[in-house]
From TrEMBL:
Keywords attached to this entry: Methyltransferase, Transferase
Species annotation: Geodermatophilus sabuli
An MF annotation (GO) of this entry: S-adenosylmethionine-dependent methyltransferase activity
GO biological process: methylation
Stretches assigned to the Methyltransferase type domain: 45-138
Identification of the protein by name: Methyltransferase domain-containing protein
Matching InterPro entries: Methyltransf_11, SAM-dependent_MTases_sf
PANTHER family tied to this protein: 2-METHOXY-6-POLYPRENYL-1,4-BENZOQUINOL METHYLASE, MITOCHONDRIAL (PTHR43591:SF24), METHYLTRANSFERASE (PTHR43591)
Amino acid sequence: MTSTTAQRAREVWAAGDYQRVGVRLVPASELLVADLAVRPGDRVLDVGGGTGNTALAAARRDADVVCTDIVPELLDHARRRAEVEGLAFDTETADAHELPFADGSFDVVASTFGVVFAADPERAAAELLRVLRPGGRLGLTAWIPGAPGGRLLELTARYDPDGAAGDPLRWGTVEGVLGLLGRGAVHQLRHVERTVEFTAPSLAAQWQRYRDWFGPVHLAWSRLDADGRRALEAEFTDMWGSYTRGSGPGIVVPNTYLQVTGVRAG
């Protein structure tokens, strides 16, 4: 990954306040770690770990965890969260394209909505497999195309192409993941679509959260003129509102993602 591309990725994900959005994905991390059967003493790597959702889930199961991300400020937050919970894991600023670990260093490699934003998906996928020992477990999550999370990424990329990162929706299909990992590289492959509910007091409140806290939207908004801002907000409101479930106070939006787990071939 070139220094320019790495700097752009840091800029996108350091913008806003990702923890306020990412904390709502804790259920996805807990489910992934449970399905990977993480056990005490397992050496676990969380790639693109952000503020630590998956690292924390693995640490609660007494694993030996390393949490990496390209944005050091997010890892600072991950460490603070661990301290509050009385947990511990190592953190290291690292590019998913060049993980600073020896071949076969980990029993489990996981990434929840993280590695999917790597600028070079093939290279990042190869790195995941390189640092995983033969017989080790791999686990990934990504928004599926057509789900609110996937459509939000498409919408943001359309308004701010320079802020788009990687090919995240490619990771959100089984064929896409198989193509990236290479057929035969992972066996006992399991895939399931799961849903995490995003709630907000209103559509306006949900929009404000993404505008202020979610890096890609935050940067797109900052670069648009007044007309562009109005158009982006209107499209977001129409799109997000179309997924709202129920008729009670506030909004509840089921956000569907793909979870893939497997074992690295020996």
